[in-house]
Design brief:
CATH architecture of the largest domain: 3-Layer(aba) Sandwich
Catalytic activity: (6S)-5,6,7,8-tetrahydrofolyl-(gamma-L-Glu)(n) + L-glutamate + ATP = (6S)-5,6,7,8-tetrahydrofolyl-(gamma-L-Glu)(n+1) + ADP + phosphate + H(+)
Helix content: 25-40%
Largest sheet: 8 strands, mixed
Strand order of the largest sheet: 4-3-2-5-1-6-7-8
GO molecular function, one term: ATP binding
Pfam families: Mur_ligase_M (PF08245)
Cofactor: Mg(2+)
Number of strands: 17
GO cellular component, one term: cytoplasm
CATH topology of the largest domain: UDP-N-acetylmuramoyl-L-alanine:D-glutamate ligase
Radius of gyration: 21 Å
Number of domains: 2
Length: about 450
Amino acid sequence: MTTLAADREIDALMALHPKGFELSLDRITRLLERLGNPQDRLPPVIHIAGTNGKGSCAAFSRALLEAGGHLVHVHTSPHLVNWAERYRLAAEGGGRLVDDETFAEAIARVARANEGQKITVFEILTAVTFILFSEHPAAAAIIEVGLGGRFDATNVVARPAVSVIMPVSMDHEAYLGDRVELIAAEKAGIMKRGCPVVIGAQESETALQVLIETAERLDCPTFVYGQDFLAFEENGRMVYQDEDGLMDLPPPRLPGRHQFANAAAAIAAVKAAGFEISHRATEKAMAKVAWPGRMQKLAQGKLAELAPKGSDIWLDGGHNPGAGVVIAEALAEQEEKNPRPLFLISGMINTKDQSGYFHAFKGLVRHVYTVPVSLSDAGVPNDELAVRATEAGLTAEPVSSVASALMLLRDTWDGPAPRILIGGSLYLAGAVLADNGTPPT
């Protein structure tokens, strides 16, 4: 967990440099040259892009490698509660979030090298990733793309062990394009000539075609979900299949049928990167994998105690229509096994398709409570968000906070113990984990 030293360094950067993204590799390349090009001294890199499922793929990849006895670095973004969540450094017995002293020193070193030149904070923090990962030993580094792929600051690794493209759908249209094939082309930008590529399950045939054509043009050994590998449910188990045969595995610890495909992509990626993972290690990974803020069950904590007694509370930071679909499917699956009335507490930001997200829950959610997203300047006002939910065919009302929504539900609902989803934004998910007293560790 970060403390004052790293927070002070980041606050200083925020005051000096603009927020947001500037899609170019010129600034990060210049900065890394001043730092001695640490991105060229990394262990084998698993580089992950996509609209949805990147974090889950990173979590599965980490679990697989650690179950196989390997030391692994992991970079993900954004964080939920603490900046240090973005940097998990390899350690015996499982990685550890970077400690405050090491983190603060790396930030300060990168900021000095930049000498106040124009740059974004994300680019500086990406350079911190390369500093940390190059200076601490590990067998592999898992690096998640921040935005897009082609011009993302992480896309300076010349020869990744494998590039992974998870499901591509509409998101960040202002930066990446307003058609799925344009977004797919941006994500495909992390592919490097001759380096292995794993393409996860794609809903769009157009996106899939763009990804395959790009990989073929670059002469990349390519492994495509549904063609070269796949996973399916059989008798309550997960079966993974590729050219090496079948693995009969326990279902992933992360809930939702979509996690079968995410797990399969990670297995294919780890193998394509050159690691041999035994059946036993894969079983262990499926049972131990964890990914905070993504269909995370809140069984205890300060907020959980405010809900109706016996409530089944879930937290998910998914924030676009594609994420809404897979979350709704996961909840529908739970409804089949254990029926409960479902309520949604949602906060979103104005760069996301709010009505598209809500539409996925039509016919499934009994009522929506909309809340402000206080950690983002782009938060949609709760009354306006209630209108978007209503436009999607749901009943909705604005309330002042997640705590207020939980207490209102507790005081007004007289039916069976409900199932509650809190979702719509990673900012909201982070605030909930902080307020609940259960931040990621």
